[in-house]
Amino acid sequence: MIEIVIGEWSLLVDPQATKDRYRTSDSLPSSCRCRYCRNFVAARERVFPDELLAVLEQLGVDRSREAETQEVAEVGPGWHHYIGHFPFVGEVLEGVDPWKPIPMGERAAIWFNGASVPMTASMRDSFADQPTMLVRFAVTVPWVLSAPPSRKPAGHGGQN
Asked: Rounded to two decimals, what is the model's pTM?
């Protein structure tokens, strides 16, 4: 375990243990067929700013294996606000309000908290034997699918 500081957070993390667990887990958005998840996956490579990618790298997170994403709202023509999270092996040494986001570029933010939230069974099983935290994210994502969004998403993304 190593200590890292991100914003006002001091975390004790095990990036290698996190990487090992991602090898045996899958991504809920990648397996979902709703338009909102399909759009997120299609736009994934342009969603996370460099600052956020650097944090994921420090934590050992596989950026292509979100435990969950959810489209929250259309925020402008062709732009949608999503939230989601990635688990990682670690614990908080010192932190601030767990709901106080850390800005990551113009269209993203992260925050940290415990891991009692939705994730695939393989991901939950992969992380079961370690202290697990979540890095939660909020991002604004362009709509890249040719099919238009449908209203209104239910659950993690939608039903279409």
From this structure: 0.88
